[in-house]
Amino acid sequence: MSELRILAPVPGVVHAIGQVPDPVFAEQIVGPGIAILPDHVARLDVVAPCDGVIGALHPHAFALEVDAERSVLVHLGIDTVSLAGLGFELLVQRGETVTAGQRLLTFSPVDVAASGMSTICPVVALQADPAAIRLDAAAGDRVSAGDPLLTWS
After folding, report:
1. What is its main location (predicted)?
2. Range of 41's domain?
């Protein structure tokens, strides 16, 4: 299996996955990863963190199927499913093939925060062996969308 570079889907400040205020992510139950606290703006483009096919797709989260064994999950905010899409706009459809850096949706960190929810965005290598994940950005680093975030060997 070749190395997979996973890019930042949003601009912001990197946080350790253990800092995410949700045990499913913080305890890496769905897989290892990292999180980004996105810029506090009214509208933010969310880009594909790697090449893949859109698997699961919701206004607040999506999974990219990279190959038979690897999928990457991006979750925009915590408990944002309760917003029922408010503040989010999908630009792609399930089953669509996308390339790294392609705009997939927009969301409003300002609206999510105004709803009292965390805007932090976990980026997870679904069901990966933690030993196969290398962090390319450290907690506290500022990243732009498209900057290297993780490498999955």
Report:
1. cytoplasm
2. 4-132
